[in-house]
Amino acid sequence: MSVSNEIIEKIKNSNCSSDETFFQAVKEVLDSLKPVLDSDPIYKRHSIVERLITPDREFKFKVAWMDDNQNIKVNTGYRIQFNNALGPYKGGLRFHPSVNTGILKFLGFEQILKNSLTGLPIGGGKGGSDFDPKGKSNFEVMRFCSAYMTELHKYIGPRVDVPAGDIGVGAREIGYLFGEYKKITSSYEGILTGKPFMFGGSLLRPEATGYGCVYFTDEMLKYAGKEGFKDRVCAISGAGNVAIHTIEKLYNLGAKPVTCSDSKGTIYDSRGIDLPLLKEIKLQKRASLEEYILTNSDAIYTKVEDYPKGGHEVWNIPCDCAFPSATQNELTGLDAKNLIENGCISISEGANMPSTPEAIKLFKENNILFAPAKAANAGGVTVSEFEMSQNASMSKWTYEHLDEMLEKTMRSLCKRIHLTAIDYGVEGNYEDGANIAGFKRVADAMIAEGI
Ligand code: NDP
Ligand code: 2IT
Questions:
Q1: What pLDDT, in 10s, does the model give residues 264-291?
Q2: Going along 331-407, which residue ranges are E strands?
Q3: Is the CB of 335 under 6 A from ligand 1?
Q4: How confident is the model over 190-249, as pLDDT tens digits?
Q5: Ligand 1 pocket, 150 CB below 6 A?
């Protein structure tokens, strides 16, 4: 049995059945690490892989709150502190009905390597709840966030663990969470990132993940001799924070983004997505994308029920560059086949683990440029760390300075991954390059820190 399979079997026996996405994430990383683990016995000698895949601690708690009709509701809250070899635990909070320990473990594990890749002093963690903010009033969201923070505040701190947003958690939720923390502790400190600018948030944090993903892709295209976004047709899934700012930066660089999607359906607008309209529908009104065609009747709206069986409508649309930016496992083997047949040259994962293992295999076999999530979407946590720095020094950096720093970080991250892949004889394989470069930094720190 290979080292990778042996470890997967071991964790399968000691974990619960909801951990499939966690096993998937671990397997993907271990497959890439084979040449490192085989050539350098120090990692095995220090049991680094076993230590890396085991969270330092997991908190799971009851969150009871009251809805607008005075019914008492109960949800489950979580925070997983995975690894702090490189700095305080750092990673988002996800509020979505699908949230469970397995999903948060996959996200937390990926976050360790992503944060390591940024080169910044941040460890890995993740948290959230099965609470669904959709359809709730602002007061309901506020009461839920207060109840959630009543427990969470015990575990976090600016030098301990600094959560941020993820699916279902944006500036509104972070604001309520911050307010409750302040009320409980009387302490005004940077215990969350993604805060609104007026009380310690960083400019550019909302844009950071999407912008960063486009900067990374631009650099990756350059190394492949396919430079530039001008007039490139781009397909994007999702219609939240990451998708919207990916579309915005693509427009800035001259590309033509033609799709977006939400949990109910897909918009295809061959003239290019109407960004102000998209922002109005999803950020202001928090409504369904179906509203898009009420204004732009030339666009095509496809409901989820009408998607290709086993696939997603976005990946059926011909494009040069694809940006899956909604959720895990949203791009299947069938979708990959469609993208390849339609001439797509690059896939950049704005979401965390959006491509299934079958899809990734097809991208590799067909020499499609593939930017894995832990590299492509690292811009969000990068600007989160900039927010921590600003909070610690009570300073405020300008938008231009932050954008310059973000772009520089994403381009140098891409270069480091590119060079790591060359060093290990897999030039052009950004998945292996990212896994190896991310692993080595955190593993070497763990060895230096002792058991
Ligand atoms: P948002 O909540 O802002 O948006 C999520 C979008 O994805 C929405 O359009 C939502 O549709 C859609 N979506 C979510 N879950 C599903 C699902 N199960 N099926 C279909 N559609 C779904 O989240 P973000 O944009 O922040 O996050 C998107 C992805 O990016 C996630 O994988 C997240 O982990 C990752 N990410 C986010 C970062 C950040 O800074 N925010 C940083 C790095 C990665 P609907 O509107 O109908 O709910
Ligand atoms: O997946 C991610 O990197 C995030 N949701 C952002 C984490 C952060 O701490 O900004």
A1: 999 999 999 999 999 999 999 999 999 9
A2: 346-348, 369-371
A3: no
A4: 999 999 999 999 999 999 999 999 999 999 999 999 999 999 999 999 999 999 999 999
A5: no
Distances (CA, A) of 262 to 133, 302, 307, 327: 15, 11, 13, 10
Q: Rounded to the nearest whole angstrom, what is the distance from the C-alpha of residue 324 to the centroid of ligand 1?
A: 10
Q: pLDDT band at 404, cuts 50/70/90? A: very high
DSSP string, 234-300: EEE---SHHHHHHHHHHHHTT-EE-EEE-SSEEEE-TT---HHHHHIIIIIS---GGGHHHH-TTSE
Question: Which among 211, 241, 384 is the best mutation to test ligand 2's pocket, defined by most ligand atoms within 8 Å of the CB?
Answer: 384
- Using a CB cutoff of 8 Å and minimum separation of 24, what contacts does 70-78 make? 73/144, 75/129, 75/130, 75/131, 75/144, 76/129, 76/130, 77/127, 77/128, 77/129, 77/148, 77/151, 77/152, 78/104, 78/127, 78/128, 78/129
How do residues 242-254 score in pLDDT, each as one tens digit?
999 999 999 999 9
Testing ligand 1's pocket by substitution, the residue of 167, 237, 282, 314 carrying the most ligand atoms inside 8 A of its CB is 167
Tell me what the pLDDT averaged over the chain comes to: 96
Q: Could you tell me the two tokens for 87?
A: 């700095």
Domains in the chain, CATH or no CATH each: 3-52 (no CATH), 57-190 (3.40.50.10860), 206-376 (3.40.50.720)
Q: What is the pTM of this model?
A: 0.97
Q: Would you say 176 and 141 are in contact if contact means Cβ atoms under 8 Å apart?
A: yes
Residue 1 pLDDT exceeds 80? no
How would you classify residue 425: left for phi > 0, otherwise alpha for psi between -120 and 50, otherwise beta? Answer: left
* Ligand in closest contact with the CA of 243: 1
Cα–ligand 1 centroid distance for 296 (angstroms): 24
